[in-house]
């Protein structure tokens, strides 16, 4: 059988205080630099939670640990799946992002296997992110990336350490 997932891209961790957590990773463990972004209705289109169109907001920070990107996420409201996770589990690993042969084929696999959407957004003008309910099977949430060929990382709102 051909594997659905071809590579581990990212580990996503939900936190209460993004700034404090970024400082700990960087100052205590030497992990960074961290690029900090704000995701909200002004920066992400077509947001949905549980398959329903709804706007949510969060701050996130990205840094590489070897070949894997680490993402720290602070929910800024009570709407997102990140906020639900924080309420139910506290801080910790929320998801892993997996690479696939193609974003479209991965969506087809999810639909065929009834892997329900947890959260979705279209960042900027060319980057889909899509969390699927894979906890029963894989014991974790899987995020699917869908950057278009034209995707370029936008300027972060901050970088730590500078």
Structure notes:
By secondary structure, this protein is of the alpha+beta class. The chain has helices at 18-29, 81-89, 103-112, 135-138, and strands at residues 5-14, 34-39, 44-49, 52-53, 58-65, 68-75, 92-100, 117-123, 127-132, 141-147, 158-160. It has an 11-stranded mixed β-sheet. β3 (44-49) and β4 form a beta hairpin. The model has no long low-confidence stretch (mean pLDDT 95).
Unreliable residue stretches: none
Number of helices: 4
Sheet bearing the most strands, described?
11 strands, mixed
Q: SS-based structural class?
A: alpha+beta
**Helix amount:** 10-25%
Molecular shape: globular
Share of residues in strands: 35-45%
Neighbour order of strands in the largest sheet: 4-3-8-9-10-7-1-6-5-2-11
Nearest-integer average pLDDT: 95
**Cα-based radius of gyration, to the nearest Å:** 15 Å
| Helix-strand pattern | EHEEEEEHEHEEHEE
Looking at this protein, list some descriptive labels:
162 residues; 11 strands; alpha+beta; single chain; 22% helix
